[in-house]
Amino acid sequence: MYNKLLINPAYAGARGVPSITAIYRNQWIGFKGAPQSALVSFNSPFLSPRVGVGVTVSHRQIGLQRDFHMALAYSYDLVASDEFSMRVGITASLRSLGIAFSDAQPNVDGDPSLGEAQVNDFYGNVGAGIYGTVSDRFYFGFSVPRIYSNAMGYANGNAVLIAKEYQHYYGMAGGVFPIADDINLMPAILLKYVKNAPFDADVNLNLDIRKKFTAGLSYRLGGDGPGESIGLLAFWQAAPQFGVGAAYDFGLSSLKDYNAGSVELMVQADLKKRSKKMSNPRFFL
């Protein structure tokens, strides 16, 4: 919810001020080799409020896998009225997908299948998206962060293709609904689809109090249970230009018996004061 730039380049510049977001996630605590990820992103208007630029740098490890990702984004607001905005964006990305064989603990000393200490492959790609806002109360978007289908790895003298990358499609929407003085209800949904994989979605419901504190619940489809996880979320706007957030996920799949849940921490900072008319909670933008 607070990191739309990662999957939608059209979000670049939508906040109206230069902003930095940093997120760390430790998934399935206690499960050996479970995913860990860290991300830093920056986005800002550039020369004009209608033009936005952004950069995202992230690192993820799962077992022996080590992935590094960097992306540049550009967006342009086609409408830019007070009541409606429609941004279109493009992105160029570079990924390093590696395996740290030196971190393996083989059952047999000198296992020849471990090969080199570290193997890295590099893949470039391009993506596109749209991001719109209505009456400063609703947002929606659609994006494909990687359009090109990279061939990823070969075996038997480059004769057999090991894997191929397919396009991932993302749809998002959310809104802000006042329910009392200084209290807003903020639902949001993220839809995810990729060929030959199950349809996926995140559904979130948050309550904003006086534009200082946000708390809510998140439900994620997936897994082999009634869903992948249920999460508790909290965000504190510690200062007008600085906020911190945390989330804890309770697993719902069969993996729940082998881990202590997942933890996520976030810091978000604006490098410039926002316009007074941009008064919506940070979650919305």
Written overview of the protein:
The protein is mainly beta and 285 residues long. Strands 1-2-3-4-5-6-7-10-12-13-14-15-16-17 form a 14-stranded antiparallel β-barrel. A two-stranded antiparallel ribbon has the order 8-9. A hairpin with a 2-residue loop joins strand 11 and strand 12. The chain contains no helices and 17 strands.
Question: In terms of topology, how is this protein built?
Answer:
Elements lengths: L18 E8 L9 E11 L1 E15 L2 E13 L6 E16 L19 E16 L3 E7 L6 E5 L4 E5 L3 E8 L1 E4 L2 E12 L5 E10 L3 E8 L8 E11 L2 E10 L10 E9 L15
Antiparallel strand pairs: 1-2, 1-17, 2-3, 3-4, 4-5, 5-6, 6-7, 7-10, 8-9, 10-12, 11-12, 12-13, 13-14, 14-15, 15-16, 16-17
Which structural class matches the secondary elements?
Answer: mainly beta
Question: Helix segment count?
Answer: 0
Biggest beta-sheet profile: 14 strands, antiparallel, barrel
The side-by-side strand order for the widest beta sheet comes to 1-2-3-4-5-6-7-10-12-13-14-15-16-17
Provide the CATH topology. Porin
What string, H for helix and E for strand, traces the elements in order?
EEEEEEEEEEEEEEEEE
- How many domains, as an integer? 1
CATH class (first level) name = Mainly Beta
CATH homology-level superfamily: monomeric porin ompg
Q: What separation lies between the terminal Cα atoms? A: 9 Å
Low-confidence stretches: none
Radius of gyration: 20 Å
DSSP helix fraction: under 10%
In the CATH hierarchy, the architecture is: Beta Barrel
3D shape: globular
Brief rundown of the structure:
This protein is mostly beta strands and about 280 residues long. The chain has strands spanning about 20-25, 35-45, 50-60, 65-75, 85-100, 120-135, 140-145, 150-155, 160-165, 170-175, 175-180, 185-195, 200-210, 215-220, 230-240, 240-250, 260-270. The protein has a single domain (about 5-105, about 120-270), classed as Beta Barrel (Porin), CATH 2.40.160.
